[in-house]
């Protein structure tokens, strides 16, 4: 019998630190050492050592002690401290590009966004602009003594694990090696589909201290996220983790066919959801603009104004789009066995009322009806959610491997 491999104490400590950080972030209220030991199953002695390390490195701090009983020592809450580590989110979307730095305690340390129609742009030019935008942010963080632990890059297309953008049809980009761009190499960014990044931003405590407004789902809930704009993307979240799929393309709900004799989609199929509920499709169907003009912000504003004013043509277009949404979402719910849907992007402009209408109609179209409850919500993080999710993806590098960023003195 061969000798058993010795347990690496650093690996064990790293794992325990990761579990402790994860528990602190997802907690609804500040936790004490005793709370952490009880929740994680670690001994009080081990937890005391781990907390001391986190305090020494400025990752957490002690709050004001609070007496929990008439007798005994007051309980000292532990609070995630800002300013020490952060993640940077990068995004290139159909409506612009930008960057954002996010702290462990959820504070935004810097953000910039340029609104522009990105259809048919040159990727080399756009990545150069993103590089120039991000470099000053990195310099400011360095001067503040804040370490960038990781970065995420959100893109509106199919991205492979080896950092290739296979296609982003609504940008007109194909087969791009993302590692050739300086900003990606410098930040060692992990690229992914923008809908999946946006879904991460909705998960409370995923990589930042849990915020009170993140109350639609819990940390380990399962849900479907829809990202709607010119194109329609999606993500399936199972037990608090985004389902990637074999090639990383899971969740492409925009390319579920809702009409076999419908218009031809940019993907080559007939009657995809995107052909009825995407921004260009809505505006062209309403006769307000065509082609590139249909993707602009002015056309969208005219569409929304007419919808609010009760324009019958626009109302009919919206009704048809809602029919398509119900069909596609019901298929996704039945396939994935998930009953919570977050409807983000363009369709957030239509408000909570639309979410209620969708939820009501879906109940009659999913398996297990009428006993099964289907919930549809407008996402808590609605403005540039992919930027926040990309920054959180960067922060997860620290949470998953804290000792790498906590060198011994």
From TrEMBL:
Gene3D superfamilies named among the record's database cross-references: 3.30.420.40, Winged helix-like DNA-binding domain superfamily/Winged helix DNA-binding domain
InterPro entries in UniProt: ATPase_NBD (IPR043129), ROK (IPR000600), Tscrpt_reg_IclR_N (IPR005471), WH-like_DNA-bd_sf (IPR036388), WH_DNA-bd_sf (IPR036390)
Any Pfam family hit: ROK
Domain HTH iclR-type residues, every copy: 21-61
Gene Ontology terms, MF aspect: DNA binding
Superkingdom field: Bacteria
PANTHER family attached to this UniProt entry: BIFUNCTIONAL UDP-N-ACETYLGLUCOSAMINE 2-EPIMERASE_N-ACETYLMANNOSAMINE KINASE, ROK (REPRESSOR, ORF, KINASE) FAMILY
Family classification: Belongs to the ROK (NagC/XylR) family.
Stated name of the protein: NagC family transcriptional regulator
Taxonomic source organism: Bifidobacterium eulemuris
Phylogenetic classification of the source organism: Bacteria, Bacillati, Actinomycetota, Actinomycetes, Bifidobacteriales
């Amino acid at each position: 019998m061969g000798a058993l491999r010795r347990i690496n104490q650093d690996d064990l400590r790293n794992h325990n630190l990761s579990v402790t950080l994860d528990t602190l972030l997802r907690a609804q209220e500040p936790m004490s050492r005793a709370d952490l030991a009880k929740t994680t199953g670690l001994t009080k002695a081990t937890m005391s050592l781990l907390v001391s390390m986190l305090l020494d490195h400025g990752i957490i701090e002690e709050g004001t002690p609070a007496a929990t009983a008439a007798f005994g020592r007051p309980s000292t809450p532990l609070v995630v401290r800002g300013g020490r580590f952060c993640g940077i989110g990068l995004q290139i979307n159909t409506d612009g590009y930008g960057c954002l730095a996010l702290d462990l305690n959820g504070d935004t340390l810097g953000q910039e966004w340029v609104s522009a129609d990105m259809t048919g742009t040159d990727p080399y030019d756009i990545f150069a602009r993103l590089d120039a935008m991000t470099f000053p942010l990195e310099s400011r963080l360095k001067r503040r003594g804040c370490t960038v632990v990781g970065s995420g890059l959100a893109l509106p297309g199919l991205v492979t694990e080896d950092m290739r953008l296979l296609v982003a049809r609504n940008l007109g980009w194909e087969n791009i090696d993302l590692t050739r761009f300086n900003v990606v190499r410098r930040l060692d960014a992990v690229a992914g589909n923008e809908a999946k990044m946006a879904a991460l931003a909705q998960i409370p405590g995923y990589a930042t201290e849990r915020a009170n407004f993140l109350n639609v789902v819990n940390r380990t809930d399962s849900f479907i996220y829809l990202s709607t704009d010119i194109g329609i993307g999606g993500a399936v979240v199972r037990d608090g983790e985004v389902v990637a799929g074999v090639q990383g393309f899971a969740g492409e709900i925009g390319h579920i066919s809702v009409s076999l004799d419908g218009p031809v989609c940019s993907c080559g199929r007939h009657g995809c959801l995107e052909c009825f509920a995407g921004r260009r499709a809505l505006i062209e169907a309403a006769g307000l603009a065509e082609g590139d003009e249909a993707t602009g912000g002015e056309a969208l504003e005219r569409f929304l104004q007419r919808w609010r004013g009760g324009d019958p043509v626009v109302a009919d277009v919206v009704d048809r789009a809602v029919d398509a949404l119900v069909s596609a979402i019901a298929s996704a719910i039945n396939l994935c066995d998930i009953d919570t849907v977050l409807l983000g992007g363009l369709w957030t402009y239509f408000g909570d009322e639309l979410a209620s209408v969708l939820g009501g109609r879906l109940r009659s179209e999913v398996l297990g009806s009428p006993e099964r409850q289907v919930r549809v919500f407008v996402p808590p993080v609605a403005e540039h959610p992919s930027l926040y999710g990309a920054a959180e993806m960067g922060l997860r590098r620290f949470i998953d491997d804290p000792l790498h960023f906590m060198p011994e003195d």
